[in-house]
Design brief:
Elements lengths: L9 H4 L4 E4 L2 E13 L13 E8 L2 E5 L2 E5 L3 E5 L5 E4 L6 E12 L4 H9 L6 E4 L2 H16 L4 H20 L15 H15 L7 H8 L3 H12 L3 H17 L6 H7 L5 H12 L3 H8 L6 H5 L1
Antiparallel strand pairs: 1-2, 2-8, 3-6, 3-8, 4-5, 4-7, 6-9
Helix pairs in contact: 2-4, 3-4, 5-7, 6-7, 9-10
Length: 304
């Protein structure tokens, strides 16, 4: 049997354990260790929160309506809210059991908080064997509560979070995460985002490699290298794409002449603009404008 001191087990239940991890609030109604032959509450009862029993040594039986489960060392049983049950020590021998009564509240929309909350919403009791490294965390929590070395409460909280996640994964059969989380970006990533925003928000006639380099406080070679690495194209190609997009928008508005659009986009003259547009779109801007005119005319007007 364990060398746990029966008096030490009381240290764990004295702790007030509640904490927030990102958008998940964990509040433990109680977290205690039981090292005794008798069952503290042998009557039929239920709880408003999820209750988790981990058996480290000995044996204990759980009676449910129409079902009986014998918990063995290393196993954990998860009992949902308002599920009536009764604990029975059939051997009359001392056993070491950990009990966690906990509520999990999602404070904001968060995929990981939603996952763990959903995992513990099941009603039917669930029993399974915990990995040895997770079993050891329960004993570590008891040791930390007994020895009270600086930081012991934080370690207990971290261990509880690890325990709960392992149980949630088992309840959900360890599905692969189908959600994205925030990523740490490299310096080049951040610089490429800033370059993209600058190109998108700067008047086309003011877009040059030199103006981007000045804005970023980098050399033109550095800007070219970052853009090529991150986007796979040259700065000139990025600028051309922005100008082409803007040109198409302006061509939809008949109040702008081809020459005016050429000036707005910063071309030296209309001839250069015509050449640029044809190279990128396969037709001159005048022909493109005519090709999109029918879509802007209603069927009733076309009949006339």
């Amino acid at each position: 049997m364990s060398n746990v001191n029966p008096e030490d087990v009381k240290n764990l239940e004295k702790l007030d354990i509640s904490f927030q991890l990102d958008h998940l609030l964990l509040e433990a109604e109680w977290f205690r260790a039981v090292y005794a032959a008798e069952v503290p509450n042998p009557e039929w009862h239920f709880h408003k929160n999820v209750e988790i029993h981990y058996l480290h040594e000995g044996s204990i039986a759980f009676q449910f309506e129409g079902d009986r489960i014998l918990l063995r060392p290393g196993q954990v049983i998860v009992i949902g809210p308002y599920v009536s049950h009764q604990l029975i020590n059939e051997t009359g021998q001392r056993h070491l059991r950990f009990v966690l009564n906990v509520s999990l509240t999602r404070l904001q929309e968060d995929p990981e908080a939603a996952f763990i909350q959903a995992a513990f919403e099941r009603k039917a009791p669930a029993v399974f064997l915990l990995p040895q490294e997770i079993q050891a965390l329960f004993i570590e929590c008891l040791q930390e509560a007994t020895e009270k070395v600086s930081g012991y409460l934080s370690i207990i909280k971290l261990n509880l979070m690890r325990i709960l996640w392992e149980i949630a994964r088992s309840l959900s059969q360890s599905p692969k995460a189908e959600y994205s989380v925030s990523q740490k970006y490299s310096l080049d990533d951040r610089r490429s985002f800033t370059i993209s925003e600058y190109i998108e928000n700067t008047p086309p006639d003011q877009l040059f490699v030199s103006s981007i380099a000045k804005y970023m406080n980098l050399s033109e070679k550095q800007v070219q290298r970052i853009v090529k690495r991150q986007f796979g194209v040259t700065v000139k190609r990025l600028i051309s794409d922005v100008k082409l997009k803007k040109a198409k928008e302006l061509l939809k508005d008949p109040s702008y002449s081809i020459r005016q659009i050429s000036d707005i986009l910063g071309f030296a003259n209309e001839q250069y603009f015509n050449r640029f547009f044809k190279q990128n779109e396969g037709m001159p801007p005048g022909k493109y404008r005519k090709s999109i005119e029918p879509s802007s005319v209603s069927p009733s007007k076309r009949k006339k």
